[in-house]
Amino acid sequence: VKQTRDELSALLLEAQLIQAIKPKLNILLKNNQPFVYFFLASTSKDKIGKFELAFDTKRKGEYFGPFLNRSLASKIFDLLNKVFGIKICARKIPGGCLYYHLGQCAGFCLNNFDQVKYKRSLKLVQQFFHDGPKKFLKFLHKKMNEFIKQEAFEEAAIWSRYIDLLEGA
Length: 169
What we know:
mainly alpha; 6 helices
């Protein structure tokens, strides 16, 4: 009998034991992928980095999780992609894809892709997971107010959009 510190540790241990023992009657966690993680691939000069859902922790990068509720994790993933526009297209399209025009794509499909803006968005996603939603919203309000004081209203509007989308979720 193993003891755990808290309920989350107990759930993780249970899932690991079910994977190892494979009891006949417990079918919920028997597959080899009971957990979902948020994965943030690191950026470098030649790689732009990526934010995606992962079902293992084998690649190099930063993982947030594990989460047992896949549908909730998927909804959070979609929300963060929508808020920060970090979806990546697979091909180049001269005028940009539909998601780019809806503000939900980073514009990797464009020839003049803004890597600096994209990397800033990835850092914001990383900060969201490190700080938690409440502390992160306070940070966004602070940044928006700084830009308002500097009379940089276009930049303040970007931060305001982040706030509106996160608070409206």
